PaaI family thioesterase
Amino acid sequence: MALLGATLEVCEPGVVHIGLQCHERVMSHIPPAVHGGTVGMIADSAMGFAGLTLADVGEQGVTAEYKINFLAPAVGDQLIARGEVFKKGAKLTVATAEVVAVQPDGAEKKVAMSTATLIPL
Amino acid sequence: MALLGATLEVCEPGVVHIGLQCHERVMSHIPPAVHGGTVGMIADSAMGFAGLTLADVGEQGVTAEYKINFLAPAVGDQLIARGEVFKKGAKLTVATAEVVAVQPDGAEKKVAMSTATLIPL
Amino acid sequence: MALLGATLEVCEPGVVHIGLQCHERVMSHIPPAVHGGTVGMIADSAMGFAGLTLADVGEQGVTAEYKINFLAPAVGDQLIARGEVFKKGAKLTVATAEVVAVQPDGAEKKVAMSTATLIPL
Amino acid sequence: MALLGATLEVCEPGVVHIGLQCHERVMSHIPPAVHGGTVGMIADSAMGFAGLTLADVGEQGVTAEYKINFLAPAVGDQLIARGEVFKKGAKLTVATAEVVAVQPDGAEKKVAMSTATLIPL
């Protein structure tokens, strides 16, 4: 994440937001947008960290699987991945994320939505 | 992908393999493995490119969605994401990928499996 | 759906709810809960119909894919699958659904959440 | 499954095939094909049972999530869902299934592919 320049914007119980400036290094040329794999990476991280905010002390977790739908090209000044725990269970936790692209005028465009299954280790 | 140091290993009609050396920049510290988002990125790319190998001249495509299951920590000398078109259709194409980690003795360990839905633009 | 005894509870632009009484015919014996495939079927239908509520006259649509996470055994008096369009696009639409089990005291328990990719025909 | 008239065709370690005659009760009218939810149900069952064939005596399992891509209308004499364990792990197992429609001349048409995450109870 450091390699990408991602930043932690919000971290509360069950909720984590990750920001990513749309700088040149993370942009594809064709099309001129942030690569889907990068969008997936910040969504995945936002969901994984959201799950960790509800874990017991010393408990670790891993992502068993995630799924992401791309809704529009990831173009804007900044991406924000908003991860949230949908249901925490004893054996697995389900989290969701939406990724928006913040436009120069501050408006947000939905670019992706994702779900993940997290398991404690 | 250049940022990660990924390389194109195989590119045939319907099949694309992408390699990634497990160098320090793409490793997480806890656990000491390649980050799931990075594994997702090479799987996504292998599937997207596999779809493109069957596209008509001038046709472009985008990934509508992908899903990835993580099977084991991505630890080894190199990761290989093997993407393959499962079914090419007029309105959408489904591709799959498996990601393996090549061990020092050459053995391969399955680390992830993925499916993607691709649409022509 | 008729075979299962499912009913249309809500049908508004972008939103469709489907109900299913937890009668004996749709219950598994071990565990004593509505079969996951049946839960998937009402979630799938709620999302597909939610997409259709926003379609143009004469336009048909199909589900390209759906994914469902099971959160708890589907036990209760009735299941309700609440489908909603998350984003309608020209080439594809993404919908989500949550399935709840209504308990004898009226409380709702989350039993599944799902996402679907719909394409116009 | 009995309600649908599904039958167990193959049951070996790690592999389960489920058949479904395309009789009138499981067909939609528009389009004239087996309903996607029914296709999902036999795929889900084939994967779940495939996982159970590798379980220890007395161990039970549940499906944490599944995902299915629809590839073509489910039209034919019979559907066959071929479930297979892709990787069995201690905490979770990943299985895949493909569903084919057997045509009057015996040819098979791919109608769906699916993946599932199974957890032991």
Remarks:
- Chain C touches chain A through 13 residues (CB under 8 Å).
- The helical segments of chain C are 36-52.
